[in-house]
Write a structure and sequence with these properties.
- This protein is of the alpha+beta class and 521 residues long.
- The chain contains 20 helices and 18 strands.
- The longest helix has 18 residues.
- About 2% of the residues have low confidence.
Length: 521
Amino acid sequence: MPFADELLGVDVAATLARSIQGAVPDRVLRELPRAADAFDGLSLRERADLLRDALLADVPGNYATLARTIRSAAEHDPAFTGWLIWPVTSAVAARAVAEGTDASFDDAMALLSELTGRLTAEFAIRTLLRHDLERALDIIAGWTVASDEHVRRLASEGTRAYLPWAVRVPGLLSHPAATVRILDALYRDDSEYVRRSVANHLNDLSRDSPELVVETARRWLETPAATTPALVRRALRTLVKRGDPRALALLGFGPATVQIDGPLLAETRVAWGEEVRFTAVIRNTGVESARLSVDYVVHHHRANGTLSGKVFKLATADLAPGEELAIDRRHSFRAITTRRYYPGAHAIALLVNGVATSPVAFELLPPRAMRRKHDERDNGDVSEIKTRPTDEDVMAFLESATPQRRRDDGMALAQIFREVTGAEPVLWGPSIVGYGSYHYVSPANPRTQGEWPKTGFSPRKAQLSIYGLKDLPQGAELLPRLGTYTEGAGCVYVKKLDDIDLNVLRRLIAIAWQRSDDPAP
């Protein structure tokens, strides 16, 4: 995992000071050149705030003076890019709000749009949104037709109600429909980079306004682009996981006349570290074809004795009248050092188009009751990958890293992965932050198989390991444009994020996200 000083470290602070000095050669800079002396022990955000304040101190005066300085640095210094943009955009927003004029506000919005492609202005723009939401949204609406995809994405990403690790904008929370006009203008955008942000933005709104989300998605499907169905599926993912009947119906999973036999458990007492196997048969008893979304819910026994349900995907199917869908699934309770399984009463239920069956109970036995199998494996047996997904809290994992600067670095990279994939991270084994999964078959030994993340990253002492970037041909072709890196057998090693192009990284993650199951040997 890159250290904070590899993101906003001494070298970045020095570059910022040189760029500003070049823009104001007659001014003596006092705060920026020595700001890095106070970096030790500061988090990534605290470093950004320190550099922001140093910049404001070294370029005193009104907003126009600061804006002129920033534009000059951007025009004349190619190094004026990357992580130094975070404190720069924060300074622009802070000075404009402090001045309090419409002219400074409008120009700050324009300047953030000019700078966003150099890293992102999505965090700084929140200051302006909090200051004058209506005026900001009117300006942002104009960005939806900008030629630069980074500006169009800023229109969507910067106005998300629940933008990860960003300050909340009360007006966006109290008026969730305020940004729909922006999303309406962007949902058919040519850029997948922009469309993913739109889907994530609409998904954010489902927390508080599911009716608004379903109605917006319905309108988009009435006037779609070829990419709209996929965007809508991503935008409705939270509602689908909740079993919202309106969202399911919009995706074609309406009420169905079915008979469900199951789930039937192979056994009701499961040894610690083993698997629970369940089967079911779903039969279309109606007179019309039925499109089904089938998931299952494991109600885990928690430490306090309560049950907590987690939804897992099973299948989608179109059943003709009288046709059946047979299900045979195993759910693993394999012992992993980072797992949070607790012995006791568990249960499994099916979800068919959002409607749950009655849960079927089983008992997970404590570790001391674990059955040990000593049977010899024959040559035809499959060896499974030992690293498996856990239900550990990824944020807690990242926050547990030491020193504090390492915690902040993990947050920065997790933000990029979440933006691109739209998926929540899962901790695989003790240290891999993974996104999605596919069935892996080792090319060296086809007997080695199992589930593996489509993409993700892992903290290492010396470098950052990033997974999935070169697995597909498109990724292998694009990889040389990433920047400075080295290659391992199944991953890419990066010493610091300043060494790579983050936009190329986002494209590589998007390619890796398309990974499908490996064919059976």
